[in-house]
Every structure is written in structure tokens, then in C-alpha cells.
Amino acid sequence: MEERPETELISIPATPRASTPETLTPSGQRSPRPATAAKSSASSFISPRFLSPIGTPMKRVLINMKGYLEEVGHLTKLNPQDAWLPITESRNGNAHYAAFHNLNAGVGFQALVLPVAFSFLGWSWGILSLTIAYFWQLYTLWILVQLHEAVPGKRYNRYVELAQAAFGERLGVWLALFPTVYLSAGTATALILIGGETMKMFFQIVCGPLCSSNPLTTVEWYLVFTSLCIV
């Protein structure tokens, strides 16, 4: 029998070393090594290859399951914009926190003009108006707490979203946008007027006739108070 020549066995490493400029193909030919091979081998210990084929499908499954639960109603649907601020991202609130913040927002500024209102209305009409406003505020507070985050449901962090859920997409925007802008702009303007005039009176009382040679005008005191609020 004729002896067959022994074939040369070529061992191909699974991962080429960084020092080898070339790699061997299964046919035995040499091919230039790509430039990104060194980077992948250097970062292989940071991100193992066995994680990529498993992590991607699992991530898709979790995302699809979360979307399904949000559509069905078994999971509270969250707004991605809520993650921009810690106060809207937090999920540790309760009815007591909601009542505290709503009372501060609804009664804090009104308490400043309460003496002025009583001076015009008198004690009888002033107490009656204050009682009606109290029960109205309590009713709206109860509605906001009940509709804030129903489980399952959607979390409402803004009055516009709450109005859209109650009156529809377009009508809710028109009904909530004007009162919100009016309340925000009116409250800010009133606070600037009260703060500027108060600072002017305080400066006149403390400084007295010593600083009356070139005093600031009322508009300038408004600008001073606004600058202090910004700072």
C-alpha cells in the first residue's frame, strides 16, 4: 500500500493575539487583520461576548411586557418627561403630601391679600366668602388627590393633563391653559408688586432722612426684587 503524505494541521486560535499582524483562514491563506480586532480583544474583559445574545432579546421582552401591561391597565403609565425633575420622578408621595402642597399653593398667596379683602367686604361677608372658598378648595383638593395616580391608570402631574382626562384632548387644553397661565402670571406680578413696595418702605424706615437725597423709584425697586428672586 502506498503511504499517503501526512497533511499539515493548522491551528487557528479563536482570538488572535494583539501582536500578530495577520490571521489564518480555514483554507490556510493569510489575510490582513482588521484594525478593530485589537480594540475588541482589549475590551473583551469589560463586556463579555456571551452577554450580547442574551441581553438583547430579554430587553425586548421586558419592554414589550411593560407596554402590554400599560395598555391593559395593570401598570401605571408614566410620562418620560417626568424623569427630568426629581419632584415628578418620585413615587414616594401620599395623600398627606398632596394635601400639604395643594394647601400651600392655594392658600399661601391668598393669605397675603386676606386683610385687604376683609377691609373691603367686612367681617360678615368676609367670613362667608372665606368659608365658601375653604369648602371649594377642599372639594378640588379631594378630586386632585383621587385622580392623581389611580392604580391601575395614568399619573397626572399637571392640570392640563387632568383637564384632558376629564373634558377631552382639545377642550381640556383650552379650559385649563388660560386659568393656569392667568394664575401663574398674575401671582408672579402681584408678588413682584408687593415685594418691591415692601422693600421700598423698609428702606425708608431703616435709612430715614439720611438716604432721601437720591432714592430709588418704585419701578427700580420692582427690578431689585425681581433680581433677588432670580438670584
Overview of the molecule:
- The chain is mainly α and 231 residues long.
- It has a domain at 170-230.
- 61% of the residues lie in helices and 3% in strands.
- It has helices spanning 37-42, 52-72, 86-89, 95-107, 114-148, 159-167, 169-207, 218-230, and strands spanning 22-24, 30-32.
- It has a two-stranded antiparallel sheet.
- A hairpin with a 5-residue loop joins strand 1 (22-24) and strand 2 (30-32).
- Helix 4 runs antiparallel to helix 5, helix 6 (159-167) packs antiparallel against helix 7 and helix 7 crosses helix 8 (218-230).
- The longest helix has 39 residues, at 169-207.
- The chain is extended, with a radius of gyration of 35 Å.
- Mean pLDDT is 70; it is low at 7-16, 23-27 and 36-54.
Percentage of residues in helical conformation: 55-70%
User: How much strand?
Assistant: under 5%
Number of helices: 8
Largest β sheet strand count, sense and barrel closure: 2 strands, antiparallel
Number of E strands: 2
Overall shape: it is: extended
Order of helices and strands: EEHHHHHHHH
Low-confidence stretches: 7-16, 23-27, 36-54
Radius of gyration: 35 Å
**Quaternary status:** single chain
User: How far is it from the N-terminal to the C-terminal residue, by CA?
Assistant: 100 Å
What is the strand arrangement across the widest sheet?
Answer: 1-2
Structural class: mainly alpha
Mean pLDDT: 70
InterPro entries: AA_transpt_TM
GO cellular component, one term: membrane
Pfam family, one: Aa_trans
Subcellular location: Membrane
